[in-house]
Amino acid sequence: MDAKQRYEILVDGKRAGLTAYRDRGEQRVFFHTEVGDAFAGQGLAAQLVQQALADVRAAGRRIVPVCPYVAKHLKKHDEFADIIDPVTPDVLQWLRKELG
Predict the structure, then answer these.
(1) Domain CATH number, residue 83
(2) Phi and psi for 60 in degrees, rounded to 5?
(3) Which of 51, 67, 59 is CA-nearest to residue 83?
């Protein structure tokens, strides 16, 4: 996690991927995940998102999976089910304003 409001995964010191979020109260709203083409197919996105979600739990926050990849990951990893909040029209409207 960093001041740019994203988690990154590095390979040999280079950023291979990221998952971006904005915080809304106790919610961490994930809206975008990407892995560079050179790093595709190595399971890095899953590793990145799993670590990000574990960090959200450790921080005592809740997950809002606007990002389709994060939502898909959560369907396979029900250990986070207790801290997931639904993606609502309110959240989407708030996120649009946040992202400009």
Answers:
(1) 3.40.630.30
(2) 75, 25
(3) 59
